[in-house]
């Protein structure tokens, strides 16, 4: 049976879909059979992030309404044959999708896969509860910004009421030059603040958002290994900004 993991945040703009998509690709690259489900029925864009928008025939709404079987709605990623995307592109924001109908679709797929990652809509309203209700585990994505941490804390409080098997945190968009001089909360401090184990650290770099799934940043590879093998290794974004050369990089970064 697949591990059903909801990737959530409590706040938009923290890179949740990017994290879910790249993590799914890295798990698939390691031989895991993965479904990436877009449970954001209003602002659905997993298909765009993964680059499969031109390959979609059916989506999850078609499955729920009986127009196709669950496996027919899966789009196999052309670069990662073990990665299958279940989109929600045909749905309208006002369309009601119950947690029970979503759970039925994912439970149908579960025996044939190792992981089902569920991209949760931002916020903590109905869409959040629908996505969390069908999951067994949760990954909370946040950034070091106070507003993101406050919203993540609210989401975590709600997640704990679901009695999930595991909840962990990924700190995204960490600025290495600020971390190196102590001008930003460290990922370990954020982990302590949110009272959650730290699953991964992702830097704020152009390449991490624009390299595509096939050119994943090393931080995503570490994140996938942590999830798959229960490791606690983390990427260090401050590494390039320490020592003499690091101080030069910090100066150049400020001038850009």
Tell me what the structure shows.
Helix content is 39%, strand content 17%. The protein is an alpha/beta fold and 256 residues long. The protein has one domain (3-255): P-loop containing nucleotide triphosphate hydrolases (Rossmann fold). A hairpin with a 6-residue loop joins strand 3 (75-76) and strand 4 (83-86). The model has no long low-confidence stretch (mean pLDDT 89).
**What does the average pLDDT come to?**
89
Spell out the CATH superfamily.
P-loop containing nucleotide triphosphate hydrolases
Query: How large, in whole angstroms, is the Cα Rg?
Result: 18 Å
What's the structural domain tally? 1
Number of strands: 8
**Can you identify the CATH class?**
Alpha Beta
Strand order across the largest sheet: 3-4-2-5-1-6-7-8
Give the fraction of residues assigned to helices. 25-40%
- Class per helix and strand makeup: alpha/beta
Briefly say what this structure is.
The protein has 256 residues and is α/β, with parallel strands linked by helices.
What is this structure's SSE topology?
Elements: E1 3-8, H1 16-29, E2 34-38, H2 46-50, H3 60-64, E3 75-76, E4 83-86, H4 99-109, E5 115-119, H5 126-133, E6 137-142, H6 146-160, E7 166-174, H7 176-180, H8 187-194, E8 198-203, H9 206-210, H10 218-229, H11 243-255
Parallel strand pairs: 1-5, 1-6, 2-4, 2-5, 6-7, 7-8
Antiparallel strand pairs: 3-4
Helix pairs in contact: 1-10, 4-5
Features:
256 residues, alpha/beta, Rossmann fold, 8-stranded mixed β-sheet, 11 helices, 17% strand
């Amino acid at each position: 049976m697949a591990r059903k993991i909801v990737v959530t945040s409590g706040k938009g703009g923290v890179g949740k879909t990017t994290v879910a998509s790249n993590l799914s690709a890295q798990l698939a690259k390691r031989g895991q059979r993965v479904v990436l489900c877009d449970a954001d029925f209003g602002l659905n864009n997993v298909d765009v992030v993964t680059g499969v928008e031109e390959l979609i025939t059916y989506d999850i709404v078609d499955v729920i309404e009986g127009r196709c079987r669950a496996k027919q709605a899966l789009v196999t990623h052309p670069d990662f044959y073990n990665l299958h995307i279940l989109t929600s592109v045909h749905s309208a924001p006002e369309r009601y999708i119950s947690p029970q109908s979503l759970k039925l679709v994912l439970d149908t797929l579960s025996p044939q896969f190792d992981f089902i990652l569920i991209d949760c809509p931002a916020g903590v309203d109905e869409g959040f509860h629908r996505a969390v209700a069908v999951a067994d585990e949760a990954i909370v994505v946040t950034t070091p910004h106070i507003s993101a941490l406050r919203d993540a804390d609210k989401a975590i409080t709600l997640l704990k009421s679901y009695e999930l098997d595991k909840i962990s945190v990924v700190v995204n968009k960490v600025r290495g030059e600020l971390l190196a001089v102590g001008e930003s909360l460290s990922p370990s401090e954020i982990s302590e603040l949110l009272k959650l184990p730290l699953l991964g650290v992702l830097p704020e770099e152009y390449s991490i958002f624009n390299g595509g799934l096939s050119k994943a940043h090393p931080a995503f590879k570490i994140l996938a290994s942590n999830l798959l093998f229960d490791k606690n290794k983390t990427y260090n974004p401050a590494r390039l900004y320490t020592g003499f050369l690091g101080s030069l990089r910090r100066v150049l970064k400020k001038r850009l």
